Structures are given as C-alpha cells and as structure tokens.
Amino acid sequence: SMQWIKAIARDDVPEEDVIAVEAGGREIALYGVDGEVYATDNLCTHGNARLCDGFLTGHEIECPLHQGRFDVRDGRALCSPLRDNLATYPVRIEDGVVFVAL
Ligand code: FES
What we know:
By secondary structure, the protein is mainly β. It has strands at 4-9, 17-23, 26-33, 36-41, 55-57, 60-62, 69-71, 88-89, 91-94, 97-101. The strands form three sheets. Strands 2-3-4-8 form a four-stranded antiparallel beta sheet, with no helix packed on it. Strands 1-10-9 form a three-stranded antiparallel beta sheet, with no helix packed on it. The chain has a three-stranded antiparallel beta sheet with strand order 5-6-7, with no helix packed on it. A hairpin with a 6-residue loop joins strand 6 and strand 7. Residues 44, 46-47, 49, 63, 65-66, 68, 81-82 line the site of FE2/S2 (inorganic) cluster.
C-alpha cells in the first residue's frame, strides 16, 4: 500500500528545474514547475540515465542521453526513442516539507 515518505524541504526544490532525492530506498526526481512540485522515477525508462541530469522545459523533462522527453505531470513518454512511460508519484506539501507517496 501507499506510504507518504518525507523527501526534501519545499524550499530546496528548485523552480523550473529538477533535483534528485532518495526516498523510501528509491531514487526520485522532483520538479518545480509554476509553483507546483511533481515527482517521478529518476531513472529514464529507456536506458541508464538520470533525469536529474536532464533539461526541464515547462512540464517536459528531456533525458540527457538520447533526448527522450517525458511529461512530468503524468510520466507520459512524448517522443522516440522512448517506448515506456515513467512512473509518477503523488506529492503533498506539509509544514514546508515535500512528501511523496510511494
Ligand atoms: Fe533516456 Fe535513452 S536513456 S532517452
């Protein structure tokens, strides 16, 4: 079942950028977009690359290895060479702390 895991201070999520955290033994990427925070797996579904090393434009994260792009809101793979969507996780902000449901 789902558990809310403390991830990072809200102030440490960069605006219009991505940061990786470890939460519940997993690597999670957190994105700050338009004042909202989104969470996905940090590993690309296509290969051995970390999305925290990629480039965020609006709601799209571009993988640094083959430039595949995902929508950080729903994990949808937006272009080739991606075939598989990315896992996303619900986010909750409480008392200045970001919690992720894993
Ligand atoms: Fe991410 Fe290939 S590893 S697009």
